[in-house]
Amino acid sequence: MLKVKNVSAGYDGIDVLHEVSLNVNEGEIVSLVGLNGAGKSTLLKTISGILPAKKGDIYFDDQKVTNHSTDSLVKKGMVHVPESRFLFPALSVKENLLLGTAAKDNKFRKLKSDELFNFVFDLFPVLKERSSQRAGTLSGGEQQMLAIGRGLMSNPKLLLLDEPSLGIAPILVEKIFESLLMLNKEGITIFLVEQNVSISLDISHHAYVLDLGKVIMSGTGKEVLNNPQTQEVYLGGF
Ligand code: ATP
Q1: What is the SS3 assignment for 218?
Q2: What are the coiled-coil residue ranges (predicted)?
Q3: For residue 224, what are the CA distances in angstroms to 53, 62, 72, 231?
Q4: For residue 10, how far is its CA from the centre of ligand 1 (angstroms)?
C-alpha cells in the first residue's frame, strides 16, 4: 500500500534521511522505531507531503505520490496524526472532530458524517462524554484520542501515527494501543512511529529500525523485538 524507495530528505540543505526504503502492506500494522533524532518524524512528514523529498520516490496504492500536497494525500486516504496533535484548544471536542471531515469522500468506506462520529465515539467513548468540552481542557491522553479521532473523521485507509503514547499515563497508553488493534481489525493500515519500543513491536506485523536516518534493521515485530541489538540499545539490555 505504501512504498518508500531510496528517500532522502532534511532541513536547510542538510539531509536527515539517507536513502530510506520501506514497505507497508495493506492491512498491516508496521512500526518504525529508533532513538531521539533518528529521523522518524521527518520520514512521516516526507511521506505525507509536509516536507519535500530531495531524492527517491513514494508510492501509495501503486501511484507515485512523491511531493504531492498533504491535502491531495488525505483525499486519497492517507492521514498523518502528528506528534504535536495540532488541536484547536478553544474549540469543542465535536468541533475539532468536524474539522476532520473535510476530505471524507475517499473510496475506502462510504461513511456519512454521523456514521464517522459514531465510529469515533464507539472507539473512544470518553470523546462522546466530553463532546462539548473545549479541547484545550482535555487530559493529554484524551487529546491524543481526539487527534486520532479527528484523523479518522477523514475516513482514511492508511493512518500515519507519530508517537501516540507520548506524555500519556501507562493505562491510557494501553487503551490507545488497544484502539489501534481495533482500527486495524476494521481494515485500516497503520504506520506507527514510536519510542515505546516493546509495546509497538508487540502489536506490529512488521517493523523497521531507523538510526541516523538509515534503516538498519527490519523484520517481523517479534524478530525486531527479540534481536539482541534492539534489546541492548532500545530496551536497556535485558
Ligand atoms: P524524536 O523521537 O525525538 O521525535 P525523530 O526520530 O522523530 O526524533 P526527527 O524529529 O525526525 O527525529 O529529527 C531528526 C533530525 O532532524 C534531528 O536532528 C532534528 O534536530 C532535525 N530537525 C527536525 N525538525 C527540524 C526542523 N524543522 N528544522 C531543522 N532541523 C530539524
Answers
A1: strand
A2: none
A3: 27, 27, 34, 9
A4: 9
Question: Is residue 107 one of the residues assigned to a domain?
Answer: no
What separation in Å is there between the alpha carbon of 117 and the centre of ligand 1? 34
| Complex ipTM | 0.95
The string of pLDDT tens digits covering residues 152-184 is 998 899 999 999 988 888 888 888 899 999 999
Instruction: Give the pLDDT band (50/70/90) at residue 238.
Output: very low
Query: Is residue 146 over pLDDT 60?
Result: yes
Prediction pTM value: 0.91
C-beta of 41 in contact with ligand 1 (< 6 A): yes
Our mutation pick for probing the ligand 1 site, out of 42, 45, 80, 194, counting the most ligand atoms within 8 A of Cβ, is 42
Kind plus residue range of the DSSP H or E element containing 159? strand 158-162
Tell me, in angstroms, the distance from the centre of ligand 1 to residue 39's CA.
6
Residue 71 lies in a domain: yes
Residue whose Cα lies nearest atom 30 of ligand 1: it is: 11
Name the residue with the closest Cα to ligand 1, atom 10.
41
What contacts 184, CB < 8 A, 6 or more positions away?
A: 27, 28, 29, 190
Kindly state whether residue 64 falls inside one of the protein's structural domains. yes
Query: What digits encode the pLDDT tens for the residues 188-212?
Result: 999 999 988 889 999 999 999 999 9
- Residue 64: domain span: 2-79+149-235
Give a yes or no: residue 73 inside a domain.
yes
Contact 174, 140 (CB under 8 A): no
CATH number at residue 54: 3.40.50.300
